[in-house]
Design brief:
Blueprint lengths: L4 E6 L3 H13 L4 E6 L2 H10 L4 E5 L7 H11 L5 E5 L4 H10 L3 E4 L6 H38 L3 E6 L5 E4 L3 H4 L4 H6 L3 H5 L2 H12 L6 E9 L5 E12 L5 E10 L1 H29 L3 H14 L5 E8 L4 E9 L22 H8 L3 E3 L11 H6 L4 E9 L2 E10 L7 H32 L9 H18 L2 E9 L2 H8 L1 H19 L5 E3 L4 E9 L2 H16 L3 E3 L2 E3 L3 E8 L6 H14 L6 E3 L2 H22 L3 E10 L5 E12 L3 E3 L5 H7 L2 H21 L6 E5 L2 H5 L3 H8 L9 E6 H4 L3 H13 L3 E7 L6 H6 L4 E4 L1 H7 L3 H16 L3 E5 L4 H9 L4 E3 L7 E2 H8 L4
Helix pairs in contact: 2-3, 10-11, 10-14, 16-17, 22-24, 24-26, 28-29
C-alpha cells in the first residue's frame, strides 16, 4: 500500500491549491492535504498536521513565502519546502534556495511538481537521517568531551611531522603545569618540558614513525616550578588516505607516584634480600671475620649497594678499623674519617657518631649534607646516600656496618627499620660466634698465656712433621721445664706464679718469633718446635741463646726480683721419631732423664755427645783464630809441557796443640756453619798476599797463589771491600787468584758477575773450580770475568778407563780454549793421566804426581834457583 503524502499548501487562491493537488494525484501520488493562507494557520498546521512536504506560494497579500520558509526552518527544519509562483524571478529564487528552500516550480509549469516533490522527499529523508546522525555524533562528542575533561590524563592528537596540536585535553594544566592554550600556541612546548636527559629518547619515535605503529615510553618532565615528574606516554601513529603518517594520538599520564611505589618496593626487596642472605650466613659461618666478609659481599651483591664495609671498634687507638669490605672501595679508607673523637681537620665522622651515640646515622643526600665529609670520593663512586649501623654486643658498640647507596634518599623509615633489624641480627650472630669461639679457645688454647695447649700443639706438630718428611729436612722438638716452679707458687702465691709464667712466655716468643711454634703443655712445661733444621750446631746455638735469654736476667714479680733456671729435653725428627706422638714422648723422656745441672739433653745419648764435641770444636776454632794456629800449605800447579811450577793453590790447615795438624775436611764445614769462615777466609787471603810479597822481595820467581773462596764469603755484600783490605799489603799488581766453585757462581749469576768484575779490576785472576760438576750456562760462562777452568779431579781419575769421561774432558778443554780460558786439571796422580792431558792440550796440572801440599818454607826452597 502506497503511503499517503501529507501536503501542506500555503496558498491564498483555492483553485491554484486544488490544481496543485490534482497534479500530484494524476502523477500517481496519494495525497492528503491541508490549505492555509495565514501565518497562524501555517504555524498550527506545522505542529498539528505535520506535513511531509510544504508547497508555498512565494507572494501572498498578508503572508509571503519567505516568512513561511523561516517559520518552517524553525519549527520543522527537516521538512522540505517548495516554492510555487507565477512571478518569481531568478534573483528571488536564488535567495530562497540559499535560505533553505528545497526547490521552486513555476505555476505555469506544474508538470515539474511531482518530480520536485519526490526529489524533495528523498532529500528530506536523507537530511533528516543526516541530521539525526550529526546529532548523535554531537551527543557522542559532548559525552567524550565530558569524559575527557574529567580524566586526570592528557589526551591529545598531534600532527606529524609539523607537531601542530590538533587537540589537547584540559588535564595539561594538572599534568604538565601548562594550559591548553599554551600548547595550542606552541608546537615545541611539549619537547621543552621533557627532562634534558630523556629528550632525545622521546624525540626518536617521531623520526621513525610508521602508520599503525604504537609506542609506549616513560620519561621525566620539569614543571614550571622546577618539580620533576614521571610521565607515561602511550600512542599510535595514524595515516591519511595516501598511507602517510598524518598524526599521533597520545594519552599522557603522570606515573610519578607509581614509580615511587615501585622504587620503594625495589628497595625493600633489595633490603629483604640482604636481610635473608645475612641471616643465612649467621647460621652458617663460624667466625666473626667470615660473618663480616659475607655481610659485605651480600650487601653489594644481593642488595646492590655501591659499597659496604664493616669496621671494628679499637678502643686503644680510638678509631674504627675496617676489617671487611666489598664494592668500589679503591683506596676509600685512605682518607675516611674513622676516629671516635673529634679531630681538628673535620670533626666527628658519621662512623664515629654512630658508635658514640649507639644509633644508626644516615645521610640521604651526601652532596648537600653540610655535615658530611668525603663528598668528592662518594661522587666519584656514584654514591649519594649512606648509613652507619652500630653493632652492639651487650649494649656496647663493637663495630659498625656501613652501607653506601647510589640513590638519593635510599635510607627512609621502612628501609632503615629493616636495616636496624639487620644490624641487630649481626650483633646477635657476633654474640653467638663469640660464645662458640670462647668454647673453642678454651679447648685449644691456654687461657693464662694465650699459647696453644697440648691438644692444639700436637695437631700443629703433625703438620710440621708431615712437611719435614715431604721436604726431607730435620725438625727439632724442645720441651722446656721451669725448675722449682711449684716452690715459687707456694712461696709467693698463685698470682705471682701466673705473672712469672706470662713473662717467661714473653721471652720465649721473642726467641721463637712465630707464636704457632710455642705451646704451654703443662703447668710449668712449654714446647717449642724448630722446623727446617739444617744444622745441629745451629740448634745448639739456639738452645744456648734460649737458656741465656730465659734464665739470664731476673724477673720482677710483685716487686720482687726472681731468678729461674730451666732445662730442656730435645728430640729430633726423623732420628728420634717418625711421627708427632713419638717425637713428643721422646722429648718428654729426654727432659725427665736430664738432671738439674743440664741446660738441655737430647733423647739420643750419642747425639748429646756428638753435639757436645761440635760445641767444643767450635770453641777451639775460635781460639785457633785468636792464637794464630791456622797455617797455609801450598800445592804447586805445573805447566803440562815443561812441568815447571807456574802457580800454587793455598790450602788452609789447623795446627792444634792438642790435636796436631787437623785436615780441612774436619773443620772447614764447621767454620762455614758458624760463620767463622768469613774471618778465616779473610785471614787466608791476607796471609797468601803476604807470602807472595815475601817471595817477590827475595827476588824469587813468585808463582801466583790461588785462594779458595767460600760460598758464604761470596754472598756477602761487602765481599769486594773485604778482599781489597785483605790484599792491600801486596805488590801491585797482586799475585793472587781466586778459585770459586761452579755451583756458587751460578747461585746469583748477575750479582756475581758484578762482584767478580770488580775483583778482576783489582788485578786478581779468577778460576772456576770443580768445573763439570755443576750446571753452568754457556751464555753466562762467556760473560763471567774468569781466566781459567779447573777440571774436577773425579773426571781426571775416571777418564783413563772411561771413554765417555775422556770425551767430556776433551770437550771441556776445547770449550775453554774457544773462550780463551786456561785449563787446569786437578788430582793428577799418574803419568798415564798426565800423558792424556798433554795430548788433549790441557794447560796446567796439579796433583800428587808432582807434589803434595807443602808448607811455606818447603815451597820456598823449591822456588830457590839451583846451581
Amino acid at each position: 500500500m502506497t503511503r499517503q503524502l501529507r501536503i501542506l499548501l500555503v496558498e491564498d487562491v483555492a483553485i491554484d491549491a486544488e490544481l496543485e493537488v490534482l497534479t500530484l494525484e494524476r502523477s500517481g501520488l496519494s495525497v492528503v492535504h491541508s490549505i492555509v493562507a495565514s501565518e497562524k494557520a501555517f504555524v498550527d498546521a506545522l505542529r498539528e498536521f505535520a506535513p511531509d512536504v510544504i508547497l508555498s506560494d512565494f507572494s501572498m497579500p498578508g503572508f509571503d513565502g519567505m516568512a513561511a520558509l523561516k517559520l518552517a526552518r524553525e519549527i520543522r527544519p527537516d521538512t522540505p519546502l517548495i516554492f510555487l509562483s507565477g512571478t518569481i524571478g531568478e534573483e528571488f529564487a536564488i535567495r530562497a534556495l540559499k535560505s533553505g528552500a528545497t526547490d521552486y516550480v513555476m505555476k505555469t509549469n506544474l508538470v515539474r511538481l511531482p518530480a520536485a516533490v519526490e526529489r524533495a522527499l528523498r532529500e528530506g529523508t536523507e537530511r533528516a537521517a543526516r541530521r539525526k546522525t550529526e546529532g548523535q555524533l554531537e551527543a557522542l562528542r559532548e559525552r567524550l568531551r565530558s569524559v575527557v575533561s574529567t580524566l586526570p590524563d592528557v589526551v591529545w592528537s598531534v600532527a606529524v611531522p609539523s607537531r601542530e596540536i590538533l587537540y589537547v585535553s584540559p588535564a595539561t594544566d594538572t599534568v604538565f603545569g601548562r594550559t591548553q592554550k599554551e600548547f595550542y600556541e606552541s608546537r615545541t612546548l611539549w619537547g621543552e618540558l621533557i627532562h634534558p636527559d630523556d629528550r632525545q629518547r622521546m624525540i626518536t619515535p617521531w623520526q621513525n614513525a610508521a602508520v599503525g605503529e604504537t609506542f609506549e615510553a616513560e620519561y621525566r618532565i620539569v614543571k614550571p616550578g622546577g618539580e620533576v615528574r614521571w610521565i607515561q606516554g602511550r600512542g599510535r601513529f595514524a595515516g591519511d588516505a595516501a598511507g602517510n603518517v598524518a598524526r599521533m594520538d597520545v594519552i599522557s599520564r603522570d606515573v610519578t607516584e607509581r614509580r615511587e611505589h615501585e622504587r620503594k618496593l625495589t628497595r625493600l626487596s633489595r633490603v629483604h634480600a640482604v636481610l635473608s642472605g645475612i641471616n643465612s650466613a649467621i647460621v652458617r659461618v663460624r667466625s666473626r671475620d667470615e660473618l663480616f666478609r659475607d655481610a659485605c659481599r651480600i650487601a653489594v651483591g644481593a642488595g646492590q649497594f655501591r659499597m659496604a664495609w664493616v669496621g671494628v671498634v679499637d678502643r686503644e687507638a680510638m678509631q674504627v678499623k675496617p676489617v671487611a669490605w666489598d664494592g668500589e672501595v679503591r683506596g676509600f679508607f685512605d682518607t675516611a674519617p674513622l676516629a671516635l673523637t673529634e679531630t681538628g681537620t673535620g670533626g666527628l665522622g658519621l662512623v664515629g657518631q654512630a658508635v658514640r651515640e649507639k644509633r644508626p646515622v644516615i645521610s640521604n643526600d651526601i652532596q648537600n649534607d653540610p655535615q658530611r665529609m668525603m663528598k668528592k670520593e662518594c661522587l666519584e663512586r656514584g654514591i649519594h646516600s649512606l648509613a652507619a649501623l652500630p653493632l652492639l654486643v651487650g649494649g656496647v658498640p663493637v663495630g659498625v656496618l656501613n652501607l653506601y647507596a647510589g640513590e638519593l634518599g635510599f635510607f627512609d623509615g621502612e628501609e632503615l627499620g629493616l636495616l636496624v633489624g639487620l644490624a641487630g641480627n649481626i650483633s646477635f650472630g657476633l654474640e653467638h660466634i663469640e660464645s662458640e669461639e670462647r668454647v673453642r679457645y678454651l679447648a685449644y688454647y691456654d687461657s693464662l698465656t694465650g699459647l696453644a695447649n697440648r691438644t692444639l700443639f700436637l695437631e700443629r706438630l703433625v703438620q710440621y712433621v708431615s712437611t719435614a718428611g715431604r721436604e726431607q729436612h730435620q725438625l727439632a722438638l724442645v720441651i722446656v721445664n721451669i725448675e722449682r716452679f711449684k716452690t715459687i707458687n707456694d712461696t709467693f702465691g698463685r698470682q705471682a706464679g701466673d705473672a712469672l709464667l706470662k713473662q717467661v712466655v714473653g721471652r720465649l716468643l721473642e726467641l721463637a718469633k712465630d707464636p704457632n711454634r710455642v705451646a704451654r703443655v703443662g703447668a710449668d712445661h712449654f714446647a717449642v718446635v724448630v722446623p727446617n733444621l739444617k744444622h745441629e750446631e745451629s740448634l745448639i746455638r739456639g738452645l744456648e741463646q734460649g737458656s741465656r735469654c730465659i734464665d739470664g736476667e731476673p724477673y720482677t714479680v710483685t716487686g720482687t726480683e726472681l731468678r729461674i733456671s730451666t732445662r730442656s729435653g730435645v728430640a729430633l725428627f726423623p732420628g728420634d721419631g717418625n711421627d708427632a706422638d713419638t717425637l713428643f714422648r721422646n722429648a718428654e723422656a729426654a727432659l725427665k732423664k736430664s738432671s738439674s745441672g743440664d741446660r738441655y739433653l737430647f733423647y739420643t745419648k750419642q747425639m748429646t755427645e756428638r753435639i757436645a764435641e761440635k760445641v767444643a770444636l767450635e770453641n777451639k776454632l775460635r781460639q785457633a783464630l785468636e792464637k794464630d794456629q791456622f797455617v797455609l800449605y801450598y800445592q804447586p800447579k805445573v805447566d803440562v809441557d815443561t812441568r815447571r811450577i807456574v802457580s800454587a793453590e793455598a790450602l788452609i790447615r789447623w795446627r792444634s796443640p792438642e790435636l796436631g795438624l787437623v785436615p780441612p775436611l774436619e773443620f772447614i764445614p764447621l767454620l762455614e756453619e758458624t760463620g767463622l769462615i768469613l774471618q778465616v777466609g779473610s785471614w787466608a787471603l791476607q796471609r797468601a798476599s803476604l807470602d807472595h810479597r815475601a817471595w817477590v822481595e827475595r827476588g824469587l820467581k813468585a808463582p801466583r797463589i790461588a785462594v779458595n773462596v767460600s760460598p758464604i764469603q761470596l754472598r756477602q755484600r761487602d765481599f769486594v771491600d773485604v778482599l781489597k783490605q785483605a790484599i792491600i799489603g801486596g805488590v801491585a799488581p797482586p799475585g793472587i787468584d781466586l778459585e770459586i766453585t761452579e755451583g756458587v757462581v751460578m747461585e746469583d749469576i748477575q750479582a756475581n758477575i758484578e762482584k767478580l768484575t770488580a775483583v778482576h779490576a783489582l788485578g786478581l785472576n779468577i778460576a772456576i773450580d770443580d768445573f763439570g760438576t755443576g750446571y753452568s750456562s754457556l751464555a753466562y760462562l762467556a760473560k763471567l770475568p774468569v781466566q781459567s777452568l779447573k777440571i774436577d779431579r773425579s773426571f781426571i781419575i775416571a777418564m783413563v778407563e772411561d771413554p765417555d769421561t775422556m770425551t767430556l774432558v776433551s770437550t771441556i778443554i776445547s770449550l775453554a780454549h774457544s773462550l780463551r780460558l786456561k785449563v787446569v786439571a786437578e788430582g793428577v796422580d799418574s803419568e798415564d793421566q798426565a800423558k792424556h792431558l798433554r795430548r788433549l792440550r790441557c794447560d796446567e796440572m796439579q796433583g800428587y804426581l808432582f807434589s803434595k801440599p807443602l808448607p811455606l818454607d818447603e815451597l820456598t826452597a823449591l822456588l830457590e834457583p839451583t846451581g
